[in-house]
Amino acid sequence: MAYLSRLFGIRQAKDRPGAAAEHGVGPEPREMIARIRGHTMVTLPRLESLVQQVRHCEAAGLPGAFVECGVWKGGCMGLMALANLRYGSGRRDLHLFDAFTEICEPDEAIDGDRAVREVRSWAQTAGGTAGRLGPLTGFYDAFGGPGTLEENVALLERTIGYDARKIHYHKGWFQVTLPTDASGVGPIAILRLDGDWYASTRICLEHLYDLVVPSGFVIVDDYGTYDGCRRAVDEFIAGRGLDVQLQPVDSDCVYWVKD
Ligand SMILES: C[S@@+](CC[C@H](N)C(=O)[O-])C[C@H]1O[C@@H](n2cnc3c(N)ncnc32)[C@H](O)[C@@H]1O
Fold first, then answer.
1. CB 185 within 8 A of CB 219
2. 75 alpha carbon to ligand 1 midpoint, in Å?
3. For the sheet containing 94-98, what is the strand order?
4. For atom 16 of ligand 1, which residue has the closest CA?
5. β-sheet bridge partners, residue 219
6. Taking a C-beta distance cutoff of 8 angstroms, is the pair 194, 233 a contact?
7. Which is nearest to 78 in space by CA: 167, 198, 185, 206?
8. pLDDT of amino acid 24
9. For residue 232, how far is its CA from the centre of ligand 1 (angstroms)?
10. Helical spans, DSSP H, in 12-64
11. CA 200 to ligand 1 center in whole angstroms
């Protein structure tokens, strides 16, 4: 995380709204997390932080939808739905963007050694690292396979019982769905980006960042994990001339609060 401090002069996470320390992590978040644990690969500190971010949005009456790009089996969105049901006075629109199949290829020229290493170890021989928009067969085998639309529907609508009229599934590559679907999303209270690669992160910021409301949260799950994800965020911030304070959740995930 030292590079983060150098680049952005990070304030301590507890100084910012929605930081886990603000409300403490009591039994309620743990119970919610237990209900979605089998549907997410996201770490406990990130899940606890997400509950507090939703709780903050509800307490502050922040308008807007909860949006995740890269939902896999729906655990993080399920957690946001549960936290809305517990802390919110009204239901929010939930937008899920995902191919709902295996992840696409990283681009080894941008996404870095770790991405290339993981593709070589996890994906089957058809898997490449040339940034093609095709599914990397076998990439998620060790995690229980790719997340499907049906698994997300089952979790959100049947297990959690969230109002199906408020859930919007955007199936397909971000590069295809966002240019047409982003205009229908409306204001966003929480934008959670979990698409791993440079191109997947960049396209989401380009199409959705302007929809995030003032004081809304932008969460980037893989900022510290993959070179390409970090580069996409840094380039976007620099290109827009944004004055943001990146807050580390753990060694991989960061968030910021939009001014
Ligand atoms: C790391 S997983 C997401 C984990 C999830 N947030 C959770 O709670 O466990 C990344 C997901 O992003 C999807 N993804 C990555 N790049 C994408 C793209 N360009 N278009 C559509 N889906 C993409 C993958 O298919 C995968 O489902």
1. no
2. 12
3. 167-171, 94-98, 65-69, 188-193, 212-220, 254-257, 247-248
4. 195
5. 192, 255
6. no
7. 167
8. 55
9. 16
10. 20-23, 27-36, 44-60
11. 9
User: Is the minimum distance from the CB of 195 to ligand 1 under 6 angstroms?
Assistant: yes
What single letter denotes the amino acid at residue 5? S
pLDDT in tens, 167-180: 999 999 999 999 99
Kindly report the average pLDDT of the chain as a whole number: 91
| Angle CA 19–21–23, to nearest 5 | 90
- Residue 145 CA to residue 125 CA, distance in Å, equals 16
- Kindly list the domain boundaries of the chain, sorted by start residue: 2-100+147-257, 106-145
Q: Is 76 in the pocket of ligand 1 (CB under 6 A)?
A: yes
Q: Mean pLDDT lowest for which of 26-30, 77-81, 153-157?
A: 26-30
Q: Report residue 74 CA to chain centroid gap.
A: 11
pLDDT at 28: 87
Closest ligand 1 atom number to CA of residue 135: 25
* 2-100+147-257 is classed CATH 3.30.830.10: no
Which tokens is 115 given? 């991405």
Span 18-57, pLDDT tens digits:
554 444 567 889 999 999 999 999 999 999 999 999 999 9
pLDDT number for residue 126: 67
Ligand 1 pocket member 209 (CB < 6 A) = no
Check: CB of residue 139 under 8 Å from CB of residue 122. Answer: yes
